[in-house]
Amino acid sequence: MKSFFIYSILLLAALQASAQAKQEIFFADVTIYTEAGKYYLTGSRGGSEGPQGFALLESKDLKTWVVPAQANDSLGMILTKGDHTFGTKGFWAPQIFNDKGAYYLTYTADEQTVLAKSTSLLGPYQQKEVGPIDGSEKNIDSYIFKDTNGKYYLYCVRFNKGNYLYVAEFDLKTGTINPQTLKRCFDQTEPWEATPNYQSAPIMEGPTVIKLNNKYYLFYSANHFQNIDYAIGYAVADSPYGPWVKYKNNPIIHRSIVGENGSGHGDLFEGTDKQLYYVYHIHNSSDKVSPRRTRIVPVVKQWDKKVNVYQFSVKGDQVIVPLMAKK
What we know:
The active site is at 29 (proton acceptor), 205 (proton donor). One of its GO terms (biological process) is xylan catabolic process. There is one protein chain. The chain is mainly beta and 327 residues long. The protein has one domain (26-325): Glycosyl hydrolase domain, family 43 (Tachylectin-2, Chain A, 5 Propeller). It is built from 2 helices and 24 strands. It starts with a helix and ends with a strand.
């Protein structure tokens, strides 16, 4: 009995030490890129968390994260302010993608969308000519989608008495849009997109686009990010430009589903287990918005024979709290 008691104490101490050796991740506007059996996480970082730019974390299981062993520095920075990059502040909402062996990072800085490039997933991501994608007016929350016919499209947010989602054909080589193709995706039309808990102009942002069976699915966040009802829904179209039909059971990620306030602005990705996931951020606590915390939730994809589209939902009781292992 004595030996069992001692074993129990030692086990409890080991578990406590293990918990203390890890800490939550405070990335907002998050994205996860998957390659060679590993996950790579980046997102918006608080201004007090080191240099302006983006850091990258690595994981094999979505639960425990570390700075990659081959990272350029101890913080895992992949893009840094002033290092052949556009932007002086407000480094938000990154997206990593690979095309024909080259790595790209699109992001927001100074309320402009930007494209940077690297020969390595771990960066550094830089620009030959420092500048935004389209400096004609403010635009944020960029997402680059490559269609099955090889064409690229830039989805982003533009301001017009609110935040609205737009799409335009994109030239990856020059890093510019075709302004003649620029089109607003849709307006604020649904009650869940404008709840009274935080009054604001219309806000729809944080786009992710996928294509399945010749249908386009646009996932987006609505409400002000400080609203406890900040949430995620999606719309479906037959073209990258729409017209978009919003899912009747939106939102699919909301505090009533995942149990935490301000659940929004992330990215959809496929895991190494072929399971779909959505990574997003939540409010820091019930009475504090920032620094926002990172979350991951499994996504359910079901074919609806009646309308010939997929329907998406999430497993709100299986939310993953990603933790960073301390060195």
